[in-house]
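Progress against Task 2.4 (sequence-to-structure conversion) is shown through the following example record, which the project officer requested during the mid-term review.
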Amino acid sequence: MPDRVIDFFSFTGFAHFYWGNLVMILVGCVLIYLAIRRRYEPLLLIPIGFGIILANLPLTGLMATGGEGEPAGLLSYLYLGVKFAIFPPLIFLGIGALTDFSPLLANPKTFFLGAAAQIGIFATLFGALALGFTLKESGSIGIIGGADGPTAIYTSALLAPHLIGPVAIAAYSYMALVPVIQPPIMRLLTTKKERAIMMKELRPVSQLELILFPIIITVLVILFLPKAAPLIGMMMFGNLLRESGVVERLARTAGNELINIVTLFLCLSVGATMNAQFVLSLMVIEIFILGIFAFALGTAGGVLIGKLMCKLTKGQINPLIGAAGVSAVPMAARVVQAEGQREDRRNFLLHHAMGPNVAGVVASATVAGLLIAYLT
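Structure tokens generated for the chain above:
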């Protein structure tokens, strides 16, 4: 009888469970807690957190690759959408269908703020190289500075597939922590007087401008960087569906059902790559440290260029909106709004901050195309 009990125990997950699995399960629970209790990106952190829990329960076979006569695991099939870089462009299709570019078109100067916030990507790339990562790994880690989860996953899938898990978790985690990370940097780099600047109301943008914008951006960006076509092309196609005004059903599907389904599968399968044997290593810790450095530097870069534009325009630009240049849409723009109203309750910066915010999405996708073109 004792032998049978021992035999039975050897077939359970308890026999293969070790402290690292427990640590990662707790990490998954923390992400779920932040999503539910703190409302930090719940659409992202709940599936990622649960995927981490599943990844660290032994013997499930959910991520098994299969073999001769053996089926692969359920999540390994879903992961194919990540591995072959299918899910991120589909998410960009939905993002495009949800994005209003009118604040950017009404004040095109804010495009510079979205571009400036990408400085974190390049600085982190060199930092990763200094720590001993390969050039492709460094590009994959640097893209965290764009604060755009789908872009980070897409870039990692093509440059360093083995880093998809930690890079994605870092990117999405720091996106969720925008209200915690950005405000201290914004206050440090700006004066009380600058934070209280009220910007003029934006001009109306015509439908013709909104229709021409995605077409022109698609042609120009892809001619310069063909490798950016999957992300930029899908985003601008989704935006054209929105702005054309004649395919509401397609725009609604892309911006709701499609993006929700793809996000669910992507985040769950990415979380499932975070098994303890891989994650609990010095390399992954370095990635997380570099990731927060990239995000902080991107925020600082946007704010500093915002200060420069403030001086050049004689106080017409509130430098806080530069922090929205990181493409954490719309969380970064909301943080700008909150910080502006800390100084003056009458100060409404949200609409102005959405310009650099959506510009940051375009800029990070363009930089991703640049990295992929030169590093592959």
